[in-house]
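The following record pairs a protein chain with its ligand, pyridoxal-5'-phosphate.
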Amino acid sequence: MFKPRDVPGVTCLIGRILLKPRIRLISLPTPLEYAKNFSNDLGVELFIKRDDVMEHALGGNKVRKLEFILGDALAKGANAVITRGAYHSNHARLTAAAAAKLGLEAYLVLYPPGGSEFQGNFMLDVLFGANIVEVSSPDVADEVMERLAQDLRVRGRRPYVIPGGGASPIGVYGYALAFWEIATQLYEKGKKPDYIVHATGTGATQAGLVLGRKLLGLEEVRVIGISVGKGSAPLREHIARLATESAKTLGLDLQVDPEEVVVYDDYIFGAYGNITREVAETISYAARREGLVLDPVYTAKAFYGLRDLVERGVIEKGSTVVFIHTGGTPIIFQYSNIIEDLLGKKQ
Ligand SMILES: Cc1ncc(COP(=O)(O)O)c(C=O)c1O
């Protein structure tokens, strides 16, 4: 049985990351919950890493990244943050909430999919006091953020631009540490993860997990990203690059290769943010079987993928599998009309 605290990379990984500036927003570890009903249905031993359960603004994977990104922003003297995302963006909501708490001005550049109905994450962005800049397409968002930063500088403010999804080399630290956290929690239950499965969007979560796995020398743990929008090949390249750049910021000469990154793009269901009957049925299944709330943009697609990979035999029966619930809970309310249309009010 492996012992996470004893593996040679631990001091290197933990030590180097813990020296970085960080704002503490949440208590860790988040729960790792055994899902008995899912396990019985699927024939695997399924644990859910509850990163949807956090005290910061309804939680989610972006919080782990923001702790380091905002630590960096404050260390650099920023008094405003600018970021981007879809109208339903969890990252935008969590950034706005953290900015409110830290006394920073927040600017959110938002675009479709989704809309500005006063509901879900968009409603929370407004409640957290963020300045909202609406644009018609994600293609112009980076340019708009840059212009906004220039304007703020001219007005004597000190803005810090956060890439969409917190996908910066610094943001990657969050899930490098989370990999260790998961391995340790399972070890304490006398188990070892065979698979870690989660939704992949901008790739920073997976970059962190892959980096953590490599630094701890636990390559036998297979990390599977289920893409919610982009194709597997460009995502794998991007994730490998992000992990390598992140290692560099830690002073580590380490190369992550795209071949080390596993991403399935079979569960996008048409496009990022597109919600189909299969997605709605997955939400319903998880709710009825385990009392678990999945969202239609990220976690339901990832969970559908997990079930299908077990059915296809890619994930072997009897394996120990960790599904990371990456959050996104407010989105279920933002798209309640679509879910109702797909399932019917009484199902
Ligand atoms: C709930 C949720 N799950 C998963 C993801 C994907 O994470 P990442 O962007 O780090 O790949 C996101 C953000 O994009 C998210 O908000």
